[in-house]
Amino acid sequence: MNKAITGVFAFLTVSFCACKTTHDVAGFGTDIDRYKLVWADEFNKDGKPDTTAWRYEKGFVRNEEAQWYQEENAFCKNGLLVIEARKESKPNPRYEAGSKDWRRSRQTIDYTSSSINTAGKHSWQYGRFLMRARIDISSGLWPAWWTLGVSGRWPANGEIDIMEYYKGKLLANIACIGANRKAEWYSNRFPIDSMGGQKWASGFHVWRMDWDEEAIALYVDDVLLNKTELSKLVNKDGSGINPFKQPHYMLLDLALGGMNGGDLGDTKFPNRFEIDYVRVYQKN
User: Could you give the domains of the chain?
Assistant: First the structure.
């Protein structure tokens, strides 16, 4: 990450309607008439997430994280999507003695979780994206709601972390490829204590992305966290491609440990990332 914001974060409290309908407009401010709902998942049906909307990642996937991703750790109950991290021990079916690949060098799986995404099923170019969710801020947890471009290899396809949390900080990140062919980050970080700490984390909050032809703006509870102009986000690999002028698909996951998540310490399990709804609007 190439930027950090320190100091006190101005936190605003937003009240929410208890009902869950497409008429719930938290996060819209005064410009609701400019948008129409184009896709949503309200997670109102108990059971597995809708397979017409979501696919699963499986196994050890990225960032040397501690968890093994599996389908059974994502489920809908009482109007929420629950992504549950569990501490459990089982053999790693991909284990290879002597392997230098971190995915294969681990003999056992010590933690499980879930990661779901809309790749190949739904993607969007521009719009207002909303998620109402509750995150746990215990040590080592790494929940995220993010997007990736449908074309190109990472980071040339572009990444937007609308919500990301780890090591006591809430992050709002955007990345393209830099001149060194590594990710070039436009990132702001906010100490969770400045937002209210555990009391803040005990409630649900609305994360929002406004993405159009000019800029990407990321919010929580209508407070701006990061705004970056698309003109800055052209890939620096000589291609001239802007990865944010293409459709993106979204991902929801609860990762553990790894390169950024930190030490799990005395974190209690099972542990949950709970999502009330995800909605996508586009301008009329």
Answer: 32-56+70-88+110-283 (2.60.120.200)
